[in-house]
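Q: Here's a chain of 445 amino acids. Please give me its 3D structure as tokens.
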Amino acid sequence: MAELAPPERNRWVDFLRALSILAVVFGHWLMAGLYVDESGELLRGDLLSVSEWAHWLTWGFQVMPVFFLVGGYSNGVSWDASLRKAEPGQTGIYRGWLAIRIQRLIAPTFPVLLLWAVLAVAMTQIGLPREQIRMATEAALIPVWFLAVYLLVTACTPLTHAAWRRFGWLSFAIYVPLAIVVDWVTFAVGVPYINFTNFLWVFLAIHQLGFAWRERRFDNRLVAFAWFAVGLAILVSITVYGFYPVSMVSAPGGFSNSLPPTMALFALGVTQVGLVLALEPLGRKMLDNLNVWTATVLMNGMIMTVFLWHLTAFVLVMTVSWLAFGGAGLDTVPGSGQWWLTRPLWLGIYILALLPMIAVFARHERTFAPIRRGRTVPKLRVVFGVLLICVGLGATAAVTIASPDSISGIRLSVVAAPFVGAALLGFGPLYNFLTRGKQVEKSAS
């Protein structure tokens, strides 16, 4: 596959996609810190709660803006290709394009959602404490918030791409005052919930920079370094000397810069964009090496599986250590010298636990069922389908699928929403189940 890549392909895009996800994975594994106290109770701690200096590490590990930059580049390429291939007068181009993009992202998500729904029900029925069930499901499924936001941003691609073509840099700049006003209304005026709109304003802005990158607006390295320098100056001024916390993820002693995003995360995103695009010539030269490029292709072939299952591997390792080995290795407090010395060993164990999950579930990233061949999904179904998927994934991360009082032990509506949404778009396990009878009947006839 690596050897067959066309020479015009920008390999730096693929490398940054893999790098950003791996940074998130190792950041989660490093920051998470379950440990057993002197009484034998399993406690949930984290590195950021005990080591203030570690807050600076989040500037390197919180790289979701880089993924949205890559998304803007890739979505621009894909949308342009769809428009070029369309026949004159053809309708439903956007709906078909969006369904395929969503399927590629959401198909690998179904197995992990189903597994944890089954586990939550089983653990509830055997009588495990519901708080522990909630903690396990929350830890394993928290990454899916990113998919909900990314799907919404992807759904806006035709509009944002057209805005870039017509207005250029202004289509990026408009999001800066929007994000500033949202933060001001949130923190100065105290209006609740409006800060969640920054999920769109911040990440749509970074997504626009992907269009700019594709059109070679950053080819001048001085331009890229200028973005890096300006972004870093703003970031330092509003965190170190300003109002926002240094940590770019949720941390004790301050509000979260990422859930939802703030201007601090916006500034970090601009800084990271400038840096990675300034390094592009060196990166592309590095990727001319077939071994490095092959590793990049391999990683991209299982990128969503690694992202979606890495915390399940973490929970599995913690559970086995606690129940089967009496908490062996969990008696060191996060942030202590002994804790740091054991990190390489634990990271190796997490990787070993993740490998079987990759072997079993990575195929869902490479095999896709045809989406409504010869038919166009109605507009209203597309809208409701996308919204149901995003609401379901967002609720999974925000409130978890575990229920504190239901007989089943899960919030069935939260679990079902992504499956119903995918069925409305014409794919997914629920769609396959509902149409199985028709497919069998058609085959027989």
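Q: Can you summarize the key feature?
A: The chain is about 70% helix and 0% strand.
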